[in-house]
């Protein structure tokens, strides 16, 4: 019978066949495999040495292109007349996983998710998305949507109130399901009365500048009910409590530095989170001081009561742009 495809991927396919019913009076010693693009007359040899198995993985194909494979049996007398030819097939793969899955809203029985399309889609495209959830204490993933979702958002309904639930999203296409994008933390199914929101003061929307030795005292209001989790980081790292103090109430947070140093300069990130919902603000702080002395001061010319001076900028600019020079 003809060769059968057992599985395909982005640039490969596995083919399997049965030995011939008639061996020509001599045992079959192996097989020769050839491949071509559908519509082409040119068959390309896959092996030059006799291949002994009846399964073969063909590689280095182009995703989205139709191919055919045929197999010849070989014995001591020669090569079989008729090669077994597969049905036309197309190498194709599932997409990569969806990106940036987040929670948009939570009630006492529902959770609304949103996400972005996968980075790699490929020739198979996207037929839709599959949403699944798992209740804490169980290892069963429940399919939330009977039909594939075409847009990058979905409200999962009928969830158990007060339980912690983990969510994941997959893409689906002709090649199957992608790897899942999993929400980083489980969501407690409860009513979110007020979504988290940072009220960043206007003066902090541009670089906040202080001199070395001065205090830094930033008060930033926020909202959210139930009470949000508040977190400060600098350049993606935890703050050093020995150098920087943080105090947080139900409605605001304070970042306090008693005596600023230039090392305190950088990009600070404030996040306010309730379950999977989050608001983020970035605050740029620059601590400055007087610049160092000008370098290589020379007198280039003198005439009458005048002199032409020339110099190089200081090695230390005080962590800010150099303005006018005083002579």
The amount of beta strand, in percent, is over 45%
Rg estimate, integer Å: 34 Å
Largest sheet: 6 strands, antiparallel
Q: Structural class per helix/strand content?
A: mainly beta
Measured as a percent range, the helix fraction is under 10%
Low-confidence stretches: none
Instruction: Please report the number of helical segments.
Output: 0
CA(first)-CA(last) distance? 96 Å
Mean pLDDT: 89
Order of helices and strands: EEEEEEEEEEEEEEEEEEEEEEEEEEE
Textual characterization of the structure:
- This protein is 0% helix and 46% strand.
- By secondary structure, it is an all-beta fold.
- Strands 10, 11, 13, 14, 15 and 16 form a six-stranded antiparallel β-sheet that branches.
- A hairpin with a 2-residue loop joins strand 20 and strand 21 (237-238).
- It is flat, with a radius of gyration of 34 Å.
Question: Which characteristics define this entry?
Answer:
mainly beta
């Amino acid at each position: 019978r003809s060769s059968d495809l057992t599985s395909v991927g982005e640039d490969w396919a596995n083919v399997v066949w049965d030995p011939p019913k008639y061996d020509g009076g001599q045992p079959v010693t192996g097989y020769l495999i050839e491949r071509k693009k559908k519509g082409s007359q040119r068959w390309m040899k896959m092996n030059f040495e006799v291949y002994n198995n009846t399964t073969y993985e063909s590689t280095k194909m182009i995703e989205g292109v139709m191919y055919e494979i045929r197999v010849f049996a070989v014995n001591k007398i020669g090569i079989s007349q008729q090669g077994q030819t597969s049905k036309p097939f197309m190498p194709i793969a599932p997409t990569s996983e969806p990106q940036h899955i987040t929670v948009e809203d939570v009630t006492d029985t529902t959770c609304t998710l949103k996400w972005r399309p996968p980075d790699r889609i490929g020739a198979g495209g996207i037929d839709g998305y599959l949403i699944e959830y798992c209740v804490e204490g169980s290892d069963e993933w429940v399919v939330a949507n009977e039909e594939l979702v075409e847009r990058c958002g979905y409200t999962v309904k009928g969830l158990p109130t007060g339980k912690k639930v983990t969510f994941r999203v997959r893409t689906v296409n002709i090649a199957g399901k992608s790897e899942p994008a999993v929400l980083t933390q489980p969501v407690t199914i409860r009513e979110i009365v007020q979504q988290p929101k940072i009220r960043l003061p206007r003066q902090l929307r541009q670089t906040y500048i202080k001199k070395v030795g001065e205090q830094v005292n930033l008060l930033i209001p926020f909202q959210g009910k139930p009470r949000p989790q508040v977190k400060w980081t600098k350049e993606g790292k935890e703050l050093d409590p020995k150098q920087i103090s943080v105090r947080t109430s139900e409605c605001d947070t304070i970042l306090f530095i008693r005596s600023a140093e230039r090392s305190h300069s950088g990009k600070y990130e404030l996040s306010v989170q309730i379950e999977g919902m989050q608001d983020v603000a970035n605050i740029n702080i620059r601590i400055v001081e007087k610049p160092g002395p000008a370098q290589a001061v020379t007198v280039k010319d003198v005439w009458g009561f005048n002199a032409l001076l020339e110099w190089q900028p200081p090695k230390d600019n005080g962590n800010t742009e150099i303005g006018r020079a005083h002579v």
